[in-house]
Amino acid sequence: MTLADRTVETNELGYYTVALLQPGNYQLTCEKPGFQCFTRGGITLTLNQTARADITMQVGDVSQSIVVQEDVTLVQTDRPDSSTVMTTMQFDNFRWCKTAG
Q: CB under 8 Å to 1, separation ≥6 — which residues?
């Protein structure tokens, strides 16, 4: 976990955006009076990634909560590009190809 808290609110359609997050592991917690508190952990963001985490709030008593702990592989559906993160050792051992020119 990054140990940094960010608070955002949804728009009138229920969409939210948390911008400019550093790569790392995150936990998402959603709260609304009259609904069960929802928490999802195991969210890993990589460099230059746009991630999507959809949730469904359940009607319930304020004292009830749901905790979902999972290692989620997020699929980036908002952009067609892809990237990968390499360790320093992988980068140093990568076979670079020279182009003619």
A: 24, 25, 26, 27
CA distance 58 to 31: 10
pTM for this predicted structure: 0.54
* Alpha carbon 43 to its chain's center: 5
Length of the chain: 101
Tokens standing for 35? Answer: 């609904």
Task: Encode pLDDT of 48-69 as tens digits.
Answer: 888 888 888 888 765 656 666 6
Give the separation between CA 22 and CA 24, rounded to whole angstroms.
Answer: 6
pLDDT tens per residue, range 1-56: 557 788 899 898 888 888 888 888 888 899 888 888 899 888 888 888 888 888 88
Q: Break the chain into its structural domains and give their ranges.
A: 1-101
